[in-house]
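Handout, section 4.2: multi-component inputs.
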Amino acid sequence: MKFSKSYAKLYLYHEDSDIDYSASLNYRMQIIAPYLVSKGKILELGCGEGLLSQRIRKKTHADVFGIDISTSGVTLAKKRGIKATVADLNSILPFPDTYFDMILSDQVLEHVYNTDFLLSEIFRILKPGGSVIAITPNLSFWLNRILFIIGVYPVFLEAGERSKLYGTRFLKNYIQDKGAMGHIHIFNRHALEDIFRAHGFSITRVFGSPLSWNLPKFLQIPYNMADRFFSLFPSLARDIVIIAMKHK
Amino acid sequence: MMSSMFEHAYKLNTHNILSLLHSDPKARVIDLGCDDGQLTKKIAYTVKTKDIWGVDLIGRRLRLAAKRGITVKKINLNGKLPFKSNSFDVVHANQVIEHIVNVDVFVSEIMRILKPGGYAIISTENASSWHNIIASLFGWQIFSLTNFSIKIPSVGNPFALHKHITNRKEAVHNYSSTLTWNHIRIFNFFGLKEYLERFGFIIEKICGSGYYPFPTIFGGYDKVHAHFITFKCVKPFDKV
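Output:
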C-alpha cells in the first residue's frame, strides 16, 4: 500500500547515530524484565534498529524475533543478532499460528491505523498461555487533561506527518524535537483495556511509567518530578504498560 | 437527551456549512465523502449550480446520490484524487478528515484540485470539545476516539452514543465500511487551523456548533470548545 511506503520514510535509522539510548533502554528493561520468558520465542513488534531486542537477547535464552516497517532499521537489527523481517503492522504478520511465547510492543500500537487487525494478528501468532507486553502513550495523562481544557492540541495527537507542533500554541517554545512521530491512534487506560479484552485477551496487569523528554533546564526537574508522581496512577501516567494474556 | 442535543448540534453544523457558501451559478462543486447526497444536494442548491460532483467509497450510498442528480465517482480518499489540478471552485468534506489515514495527501489533494481563489469547507469533530474534556478528566477515552474497533461499539468510554451501530453490523462483513466508520485522527481547533495554514490555505472563517451540556448555539461563540468545527479555507491566487 502506498501509505505504508510514505509512512516508512518517517523511520530511518543510521548505523553511526551517536544518540545515547542506554538510560531509556535500561529503564525499559527494568519495566519488562519481570515479565519476560526465559526461553522460547519472543517477538518485538516495531523493533526498529533492535536495541531493545538486543538487550532482551542478552538477558534471556529466548530466540528473539523482530519486525519493523523500516528497512534501514531491520538491517541494523539483523547485525545485532535479531531475526528481523520487514513487515507492515497493518497487514498480515509473516508468522504461523501460535508461534510465539511472548510478544512485546513498545511505543508501537499508536503508530498503527488498523488496530483491530493488528490485535487479531497478535492473538493468532501467540501461543495459548503466552503474554503480550504493550507500552503506549496515555491520551489522558496528567498534562493532557490540562491541555484539553485550554484547547491546546494534546500531546501525542498529531495532525499529519510533517510536524507534531500544529496547535500546540505556547508549548511550541518548550518542545525541542519537532518532527512528527507518526502517531495515529492514541489510547488511554480504559480504551487499551477494552480493546485488548475485545480481542480475547485477559489483562494480567496495568501500570504507569514515566518518560521524560527534552525540555529547557528550568522545566526539566519539576516536569520529571510531576511525571514520576503521576506514573504511580496508571490512568494519569505518561505511558501505560499493559500485560495481557491469551488463555490456554 | 444527549442524542437530541447531538441532532441539534449536527443540524446547526449543517447550517454553518451552508452559510459559508456563496451563490455562483457557474461554480463546479465537489463533495468528498458525499454519502447519499442529501447534503450535497443542499450545497448545490445554495451555490445555485448544476455542476455538482460527489465521491465516496460505498457504492450503495453513491447510487442514492446519483439518483439525486449528482455526478458520482467511487474512489478511496486515502490516495490521489482522479481529478485535474485547478478544476473545482468549491470542495466540501463534512465529517471526513477524521476518517482519513493519510491526511497529508488528502489536504494537499484538496489544495491541488481547487482553482486559485476557490475555497474548501472542512468540517470535523473537535478533540477539545467540552464533552471530550469531561470524559478525559474522568479518565475515559474522549468521545471522538471511541469508535475505532469493529469488535465493540465504543472503546474506553461506556457513555459514548452508539450512533453508528447499524453501520457497525455491516462493517463486520464489509471492510470498506470499516474504513468509513472508524475514526483515525482527531483534530482540535488550533491543531486543524495551523495544519491547514501550513498547506498554504488562508482561513477565511471558522464556525463552531454544539456545546454540551449547554445550548448548541454557545459553540458559535467559543469555537475552541465546540463539538463540530467548520473551516472555510481559501486557496490563494498566487498558489497554482
